[in-house]
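Researcher: Structure prediction, please.
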Amino acid sequence: MIELERDRDVWTVTINRPDKANSLTHAMLSKLASIMEDAQNARAVILTGQGKVFSAGADLAEAGAGLAESEVWERLSGAIAALPGLSIAALNGTLAGGAMGMALACDLRISVASAKFFYPVMKLGFLPQPSDPARMVALIGPSRTKLILMGGQKITPDEALAFGLIDRIVPDADLLDHARLLAAETVAAAPKIAMGIKEMCAGTVQDTAQDIL
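Model: Predicted structure follows.
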């Protein structure tokens, strides 16, 4: 249910459980985390899904049995955030619940026009995963984060783009091609330059510009 395609320096990871809205079991999340932990040498990683939904979040059969509060979500989002290469969430459809953490941890988020974005953990009696609110606040600010997490609002792609939750809306048929185009630009650059830019954008670079060059 988790597929990995390696095309030289670009890894494409696909959630393939469309009959269950790509809902995530513990085994699937563990597999995703392992792939991301192994992707340290990838120049770019694209994360997408099969079907009309990117992911509905936790598998309902496992959520109430502890999956909703498992540390595996943080393991996964932390591994994505730690990738030295460019990470792209190619959102083929609706993104809901804890699955939001994967997209929030990516460098870029592109989406089809039919997607919706919501995170209804409060209604279900759970807290969000620890790093998700902070990452969302960094993208869209505290008030809009509360609109989603506390106001329980479903956000349209146009709103998500205006908020800064996603970076671009693309036609369904062009989604993966566009993600690969973005990845190709990074792969074409010298690794030290591309990684240096990512570090500078994160505000963690310690080298001077001369050291990077």
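Model: The radius of gyration is 17 Å.
Researcher: Thanks, that helps.
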